[in-house]
Design a protein that fits this description.
alpha+beta, 3-stranded antiparallel beta sheet, 7% strand, globular
C-alpha cells in the first residue's frame, strides 16, 4: 500500500510540474525569458521560488537524518542556512540587481572588464552546481529505493528527465512558476505528517527522544544492509545473521556479537533481540547517549574546528550560490530584490521547524537507520512505523510528494544557472546555447554520483556551500564594496580559494578513507581556505593597483546609488 501511495505521489508531482511549467511558458520564448524571466517576478513570488530552490534534498531528507544521528548538533546548520540570507540581504542583493547582469559571470566581466576572470567565475559556477546536484540525485535514488524497492538509478533518471523537460521548454520563466508553487507543496508535505506523527507519539505515551541514553531496539528487529558498512557495537549480544559478517558467511545461524567494531557485507540481514542498544555506523560516530544532544558531538577528532568551519562555509556559501543569486536578477529593481531577500529567511524558518521533529521521533521509531547509516530515509520510513496501514500509506505518499518536489525544484534552478553560464560565456547567449548548456549541466554529476557511494545529503550540500564560500563569496563582496579590486587580484583569489576547495571536495568524495586532521580539513575546509582566498585577492590587488579598471568609479556608483538617480 505504501508503494502505491509513493508512486501515486510521484505521478502527481510530475503532473503538477508539467501543468505549472506549461502555464509559465510563452509560445515564443526569448533569451530573457530563459535566463531571468524577463525581470518581471514579484518579491513574494520570487521569495517562494528561492525558498523552494533552497529546500533541497539536504533540507528535506538530510536535516531529519542528521538530527536522528546527532541531535542538537545539526540545528546550527538550518539556522546558518537561514542566517546566510541576512548577510545576502545586507551586502549583495540590491547592488547585484542594479548591475543589470544576467549571471555572476556577466557581473564579473562588467565590474572588472576581464574575460579571463569571467571564465574562472564560470568554472566556479559549474563546480558549485555540480556538487549541489549530487545530493539531489542521491536523495531521489534513496526515496525510490526506500518506498518502492526500485534501484537507485531509477531516481536519478526521474530527476534528469523531469528537469530537462521543464528547463528546455521554458527556462527561468517556467521554473519560477513551478518553484513558487512547490514551496507551499513542500511545506504542507512536511508539516501535515509531522503534526500527525507527533500526535500519535503523544497518544502512544512514547518515551522522551532526547533522553540521556543510547537508542535501543524496542522489539525484535530485522535489519537489512544495502551496502557494506562498518559498525561499532557497544554491548555484547547474540544476533541471527544471514550474509557476510566480519568476512565470514552465515546462513541464518545465531552469532555472538561482542562489543567491538564489525563489518557487515552488502545485502546481509541481521535480526536483533529487543532491548539491545543500536550499533552505529562508523560514519555516525555516536558512542555515548549524552553526546546526542551536544553541539560538537559529531566529529570525534576535532569537533570544535569542524563545527565552526562548517558554520562559516554555510553562512558565506549562501552568499555565493549561483542558482540563488540568479533569482535576484529576475526582480524588477534593487528595492524589489531587497524585499525578496528579506522574505526568504521567514519562509525557510517556517519550514525548518518540521525536519527536527522527524529526527527526534526517528530516534525512537527508526533507530535501525543508525546502524545502516541510511539516516536520510528517516522522514520516509516514520509514517509506516508509527501508523501502519492506510493512514501511514497516505502520510508516506504526502512525504514522497514533498521529497520529489524538493529534488526537482532545486535541480531545475541549478541547471538554469549552469546552462545560463555556459550559454553566456561560451556561445554569447541564445536559446539553443542555453539548451546545450542544460544537457552538459546534468551530464557531469550523473557520472560522478555512480562513484561516490552512499553519503549524507547534508554533507554533500555543505561541500557545495564550502566551494561557494571560498570562491564566489569573496569576489562578490569585494567586487561590490571595494573599489580597488583588480582583475589580477580577483582571478588569483578565485584560483586559490576555489581551486583548493574543489580539490578538497574531490579528495573527500573519491579518496580516503581519511582519519585525524586530514579527514577534518577535507570534509570542512572553509575555516582555512576562506582566509587564504581573501588574503590572496587583497594582496594581489594591492600589488597591481595600477590596473584598477577604468570604469570602477562608474560601476560603484551604479551598484550603490538608487536606480532612478543612475538612469537619469
Amino acid at each position: 500500500m505504501a508503494v502505491a501511495a509513493a508512486l501515486t505521489a510521484l505521478v502527481a508531482v510530475l503532473g503538477m510540474v508539467a501543468v505549472l511549467g506549461s502555464c509559465g511558458r510563452r509560445r515564443t520564448p526569448s533569451a530573457s525569458d530563459f535566463l531571468v524571466a524577463s525581470r518581471g517576478v514579484t518579491p513574494a513570488w520570487n521569495a517562494s521560488a528561492i525558498s523552494s530552490e533552497y529546500i533541497s534534498a539536504a533540507a528535506f531528507l538530510g536535516t531529519a537524518g542528521m538530527v536522528l544521528a546527532y541531535g542538537a548538533d545539526v540545528l546550527w546548520l538550518p539556522i546558518a542556512a537561514a542566517a546566510g540570507y541576512v548577510l545576502l540581504l545586507a551586502f549583495v542583493t540590491a547592488p547585484l540587481r542594479r548591475s543589470g547582469a544576467y549571471t555572476i559571470s556577466d557581473f564579473a566581466e562588467w565590474r572588472l572588464g576581464s574575460r579571463g576572470v569571467r571564465h574562472i567565475v564560470s568554472a566556479c559556477v559549474c563546480f558549485i552546481g555540480w556538487f549541489y546536484l549530487l545530493p539531489q540525485f542521491q536523495g531521489a535514488g534513496v526515496t525510490l529505493r526506500v518506498l518502492t524497492g526500485a534501484p537507485v538509478w531509477a531516481g536519478w533518471a526521474v530527476v534528469v528527465a523531469v528537469v530537462l523537460a521543464v528547463v528546455l521548454s521554458g527556462g527561468m520563466r517556467s521554473i519560477t512558476v513551478v518553484q513558487g508553487v512547490q514551496y507551499w507543496v513542500k511545506l504542507v508535505a512536511v508539516a501535515v505528517p509531522a503534526v500527525a506523527l507527533l500526535s500519535i507519539w503523544h497518544l502512544d505515551g512514547g518515551d522522551n527522544p532526547t533522553a540521556d541514553r543510547l537508542p535501543v531496539f524496542d522489539r525484535v528487529t530485522t535489519v537489512r544492509v544495502q551496502a557494506e558498512v562498518a559498525v561499532r557495537v557497544t554491548s555484547d549480544t547474540v544476533v541471527t545473521v544471514r550474509g557476510v559478517l566480519d568476512g565470514t558467511r552465515h546462513n541464518g545461524a545465531e552469532v555472538w556479537l561482542p562489543a567491538a567494531r564489525h563489518v557487515i557485507g552488502e545485502g546481509s540481514t541481521l535480526v536483533f533481540p529487543a532491548g539491545v542498544p543500536v550499533p552505529h555506523a562508523e560514519r555516525l560516530p555516536l558512542q555515548d547517549g549524552h553526546t546526542w544532544a551536544m553541539p560538537f558531538g559529531r566529529d570525534g577528532g576535532h569537533p570544535l574546528f569542524a563545527t565552526y568551519s562548517a558554520l562559516l562555509g554555510v553562512l558565506l556559501g549562501t552568499m555565493g550560490l549561483p542558482h540563488i543569486l540568479m533569482r535576484f536578477y529576475t526582480d524588477r529593481c534593487g528595492r524589489a530584490a531587497r524585499r525578496t531577500a528579506a522574505l526568504v529567511p521567514v519562509l525557510l524558518s517556517l519550514f525548518y521547524v518540521f525536519p527536527a521533529l522527524y529526527g527526534a521521533l526517528g530516534r525512537l521509531y527508526t533507530p535501525d537507520l543508525l546502524m545502516t547509516g541510511d539516516t536520510d530515509a528517516t522522514i520516509l520510513m516514520l509514517p509506516q512505523r508509527l501508523a501502519p496501514g492506510v493512514a501511514g500509506a497516505l502520510l508516506t505518499g504526502l512525504v514522497a510528494a514533498g521529497a520529489f518536489a524538493a529534488f526537482i525544484s532545486t535541480s531545475c534552478g541549478i541547471v538554469v544557472a549552469i546552462a545560463g553560464t555556459f550559454s553566456q560565456c561560451l556561445w554569447r547567449g541564445g536559446v539553443g546555447a542555453f539548451r546545450v548548456g542544460a544537457l552538459l549541466a546534468l551530464a557531469v554529476p550523473l557520472v560522478l554520483v555512480t562513484r561516490i557511494g552512499p553519503l549524507g545529503a547534508a554533507g554533500l550540500v555543505t561541500l557545495a556551500l564550502t566551494v561557494s564560500a571560498c570562491s564566489l563569496c569573496p569576489l562578490l563582496v569585494l567586487g561590490i564594496w571595494w573599489r580597488r579590486l583588480t582583475p589580477a587580484g580577483a582571478g588569483a583569489g578565485l584560483v586559490a580559494g576555489g581551486g583548493l576547495a574543489v580539490a578538497a571536495g574531490v579528495a573527500w568524495l573519491l579518496g580516503g578513507p581519511w582519519t585525524g586532521w586530514p579527514a577534518t580539513l577535507l570534509a570542512q575546509p572553509a575555516m582555512v581556505i576562506v582566509p587564504i582566498g581573501v588574503a590572496v585577492t587583497v594582496t594581489v590587488s594591492l600589488l597591481t593597483r595600477s590596473h584598477i579598471p577604468r570604469g570602477a568609479d562608474r560601476a560603484m556608483a551604479r551598484l550603490h546609488l538608487p536606480e532612478e538617480i543612475v538612469t537619469r
